[in-house]
Every structure is written in structure tokens, then in C-alpha cells.
Amino acid sequence: MTTGTKVVLGILGAAAAGVAIGMLIAPEKGSEMRTRIKKSAGDWVDSLSNLFVKGKEELEDIGSNAAEKGRQARSVVEDKVNRMKESIS
Hints:
Blueprint: H1 3-25, H2 30-88
């Protein structure tokens, strides 16, 4: 895990803890509090799952772009090798 990833996860964890503590301290009925906590937790889960999906899509794009650049480089090298063979013959 990179340092940047650790920092982001630490910030998210601290924010979640802050929200939970704030909700528990707020003067509300228990049933209302549980409803708010469930909604907040669901929102966090949705946000994180969207973040992971976007990250996965970006990694797939990077991988396909790298593969395409590799194919292009191979083609260029093969062309140069063929030209060298022809010039030697």
C-alpha cells in the first residue's frame, strides 16, 4: 500500500469516526439516531464502492493503453529489423 493510499484511508476513517461520534452525541431519539447512522453508513459504502469501480475502470484503461503501445512498439521494431535484413541482403 502506498503512502498516499494510507493517507486517504486514514482521512476516510477519521471522518467516519467523527460522523459517528457526532451522531451519538446529538440529542435525538434512539430510533432516529439509528436511522441516521444506517443512512450515513449506506452513503459511505456507496461512495467507496463507486470509488473502487472508477479505480478498476481506470486501471483497465491503463492496461489496455499499455498493451496497445506495446503492440505499436513491437510493430515499429519489426519493421526496422526487416529493413535492416533487406539492406544487408
